[in-house]
């Protein structure tokens, strides 16, 4: 008569082969954790992070520097910095915010290297647009029939209005309204006081409202 042998689950688990999921099946946090193991980030996991977040970096740099022709070089440098420093990230769930901070800091570094002050741009000045569409995540209630704010014309004007803002205003409004960063985070990132951040955002909103007035009301 045979007898069954009872083994603890830990022993059974240890004998089972470990199933390694492909990078595209891993969560964002798991990808980051995998990149933090070993001497250098796992190539497959890091490539998947780039695939998932490249459009985010492209959009952020586009709004920060719409007239720069070398944004692709800046985007590449962002990922170089991420590769070198990802093991320092202690909270993987905050990767997107950390990534935005790296991109913004790189933008400021490059701005200082160029040693020039952007002239004040008239809100009536035309903008040189690029080919392709930029998606916007604008949360709003459905407008009434007389307030159709979701037309192509409105969003084209909105993109133009933000791109034509003076540098300091555009940066703060992008970080606040598009990236969703807190005022305190923006102050730390841009190196100015909290009061200055709030003032710049208020003035940027006022300028945008003035330029978009014909599209907001009859």
Q: How would you portray this structure in words?
A:
With 218 residues, the protein is an all-alpha fold. Helices cover 58% and strands 0% of the residues. It has helices at 9-15, 28-35, 43-64, 71-85, 95-114, 152-163, 167-178, 183-190, 194-211, 213-216. α4 (71-85) crosses α5 (95-114) and α8 crosses α9 (194-211). The longest helix is centred in the N-terminal third of the chain and has 22 residues, at 43-64.
What's the total count of β strands?
0
CATH topology of the largest domain: Rna Polymerase Sigma Factor, Chain: A
Q: Structural class, judged by helices and strands?
A: mainly alpha
Q: Based on CA inertia axes, which overall geometry fits?
A: elongated
Main beta-sheet strand count, sense and barrel state: none
Strand content: under 5%
Radius of gyration computed on alpha carbons: 23 Å
Q: Please mark out the parts with pLDDT under 50 across 5 or more consecutive residues, or reply none.
A: 12-17, 117-149
């Amino acid at each position: 008569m045979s007898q069954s042998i009872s083994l603890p689950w830990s022993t059974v688990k240890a004998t089972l082969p470990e199933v390694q999921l492909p990078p595209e099946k891993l969560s964002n946090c798991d990808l980051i954790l995998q990149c933090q193991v070993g001497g250098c980030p796992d190539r497959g996991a890091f490539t998947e992070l780039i695939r998932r977040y490249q459009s985010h970096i492209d959009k952020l740099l586009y709004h920060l520097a719409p007239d720069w022709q070398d944004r692709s070089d800046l985007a590449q440098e962002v990922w170089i910095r991420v590769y070198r420093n990802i093991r320092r990230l202690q909270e993987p769930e905050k990767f997107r915010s950390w990534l935005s901070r790296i991109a913004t800091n790189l933008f400021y570094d490059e701005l200082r290297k160029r040693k020039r002050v952007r002239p004040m741009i008239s809100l009536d000045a035309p903008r040189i647009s690029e080919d392709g569409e930029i998606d916007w995540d604008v949360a709003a209630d459905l407008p009434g029939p007389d307030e159709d704010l979701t037309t192509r014309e409105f969003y084209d004007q909105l993109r133009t209005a933000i791109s034509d803002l003076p540098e300091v205003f555009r940066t703060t409004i992008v970080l606040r309204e598009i990236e969703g960063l807190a005022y305190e985070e923006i102050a730390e990132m841009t190196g100015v006081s909290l009061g200055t951040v709030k003032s710049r955002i208020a003035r940027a909103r006022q300028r945008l409202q003035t330029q978009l007035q014909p599209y907001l009301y009859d």
